[in-house]
Design a protein that fits this description.
Length: 339
């Protein structure tokens, strides 16, 4: 096995500088043809390979992009990561993923680690704690420094950067319209607290569909779930209402699955007694009994578009104004709603 060769060893062999060897290997005509040929032949014989880490350090380019997500177990975020990796890998980039666990402090820590020379750019969906606190200095600092940065799903309108978002309002509107079209009259909403941007938009879509159908929007049918507390106990209150709803729209599949479990425990038939729709058509929705009708968010496509925006920004292929890409939703009809 031949000894690993370096630029320094080649330079010592020929009694020249490292710079001369580097130029010779690049075919520079600054180096005489005979010496250039000898250096190239020597390098080929010893299977010389450039030190990629050293090259990256000199060019200040890592060919790695960072991704910060609120949680790893959520089907939607896992599909977004798949989309990011698919596009990034095809463009010669690797992906480094960090999880904020919905914490503002953890998100800031992730930013400090990743943006300190570890990656060429960041793709981020904001933590619930960040949206609640409305502390965005860590993001504004990156944007001010022109660090390549893309927000997806949970975004902040006031921050100027590239964004990829779901048509959350349109998705909730479609879901509510489906419930109305299949005969539901009293539709409950399981939403997040209003500081979570996607939950607020989905609530607005629900309200829009009710108004368009001539329904009255009843505040007692809108349940704002606190994810830091027991979900089951909060969702159970829907079924303890003096007048039961005949349908539920949940802003994620975990809320929807909990509602389905409680409905069956209470002796209700789904969808005959109560229809249920959730957001995110993941494995939970597919394998519940009955399977849940879901708003499909197309996370893989969102990931691909976020990676494309970021890599274009890194490589300055499109250095002009920031873009916001909007991903349309679709409805996957399963057996938790009436036909």
């Amino acid at each position: 096995m031949k000894t690993r060769i370096t630029l320094k060893k080649i330079a010592n062999e020929f009694g020249v500088s490292i710079s001369t060897v580097s130029k010779a290997l690049k075919g520079s005509h600054e180096i005489g043809e005979e010496l250039r040929g000898k250096i190239q032949a020597f390098a080929n014989y010893y299977n010389y390979k450039p030190n990629n880490l050293a090259l990256q350090l000199r060019s200040q380019k890592t060919s790695v992009i960072g991704v910060v997500i609120p949680e790893i177990v959520h089907h939607f975020f896992s599909t977004v990561i798949d989309g990011i990796e698919h596009y990034a890998n095809n463009k010669g980039y690797n992906v480094m993923v960090c999880v904020s666990n919905e914490s503002y402090e953890k998100e800031v820590l992730n930013f400090n680690v990743l943006a300190n020379g570890s990656v060429d750019g960041l793709i981020v969906s904001l933590a619930r704690g960040t949206q609640e606190s409305r502390k965005y200095d860590h993001i504004k600092g990156l944007v001010k420094d022109e660090f390549p940065f893309v927000m997806f799903d949970r975004v902040v309108d006031e921050i100027e950067c590239d964004k990829v978002i779901i048509d959350d309002m349109g998705g909730a509107c479609k879901a509510t319209e489906h419930l109305i079209e299949t005969g539901s009259k009293r539709i409950a909403l399981l939403s997040t607290k209003d500081f979570v941007s996607v939950g607020l938009l989905r609530k607005e879509g629900y309200i829009k569909a009710l108004y368009q159908a001539g329904y009255t929007v009843e505040d007692d049918l809108i349940y704002k779930i606190d994810d830091s507390k027991n979900l089951y106990d909060q969702i159970k209150k829907v079924f303890e209402s003096p007048i039961m709803p005949d349908a539920i729209l949940a802003v994620n599949e975990v809320y929807a699955a909990n509602a389905l479990i409680i409905a069956k425990e209470k002796g209700y038939s789904v969808p005959e007694d109560i229809a249920i729709i959730g957001f995110t058509s993941g494995l939970i929705s597919e394998f519940t009994s009955p399977p849940l009708t879901s708003v499909r968010q197309h996370g893989f496509l969102m990931g691909e578009q976020a990676a494309e925006l970021l890599i274009n920004r890194i490589e300055q292929k499109e250095p002009q104004g920031f873009k916001t890409e909007i991903i349309s939703t679709s409805l996957k009809i399963r057996k938790s709603t009436k036909s």
